[in-house]
Amino acid sequence: MAAMTDMVDSSPDPGSPGRRFRAFVALLGCAALVGCSPALDWRDAHPAGVDLLLTFPCKPRQVTQQVLLGGRPASMRMTGCVADGMTFALASADVGSAQQVAPALATLRASVLANVHGTATALHPSAVPHATAGLADAVEMDVSGHVAPGARPVHEHVVLFARGSHVYQATALAVGDGWRADAAATFAASIRLPAH
Question: Under 8 Å CB-to-CB from 129, ≥6 apart: which residues?
Fold first, then answer.
């Protein structure tokens, strides 16, 4: 799990969501080194301050940090954990108005690829029930990349979606050989927004 802490940031902006996400992943990696990282032990979680339910394979931790989304400051809640060599995380932020959602999602999508110098190997519109429909950057994608030239490969499955003025990014990530597509699919499919 030490590999999670090897992520290097190429983003010039210390408030970027990419930099903050990498810092959170590093924190989770350190926590996994200190304690026992369980095999996949799925449980429902309702992250504090986030209006959705999803299933994590381990007990999640949460931090809140300031980031720039679509060129505007936002308070982003990041909830996640590490299990069986993978990181599972949800990032969410209220961007203040529905008009700011599209630029915020575009920022998140660009950060996902830039974080790992990656490319999307599969891409389609996200299908989270009760999420806002028709947003160009509300996507579900598989990403392959690396954290630095010659570094171990990174695999991610990411779901970007929004409702109202809230944007969300659900990520399953593995560095090296720990990738499990079945676990990533289980995590992504578990996202449940309330029907109001």
Answer: 192, 193, 195
Question: Residue 193 and residue 42: Cα distance in Å, rounded?
Answer: 18
Q: Domain map of the chain by residue range?
A: 2-189
Phi-psi region of 102 (alpha: psi -120 to 50; beta: other; left: phi over 0): alpha
Q: Is 48 exposed, middle or buried (0-12, 13-18, 19+ CB in 10 A)?
A: exposed
DSSP per position, 137-190: T-EEEEEEEESSTTPPEEEEEEEEEEETTEEEEEEEEEETT---HHHHHHHHHT
How far apart CA 20 and CA 13 sit, in angstroms, is 10
- Phi, then psi, of 98 in degrees rounded to 5: -60, -25
Residue with token string 């030490």: 2
pLDDT, tens digit, for every residue of 161-173?
Answer: 999 999 999 999 9
Is the pTM here over 0.85, yes or no? no
Distance (Å, whole) CA 187 – CA 175: 17
Task: Write out pLDDT tens, residues 126-173.
Answer: 999 999 999 999 999 999 999 887 789 999 999 999 999 999 999 999
Residue 60 · residue 46 · CB < 8 Å: no
Its CATH architecture, for the domain 2-189, is 3-Layer(aba) Sandwich (3.40)
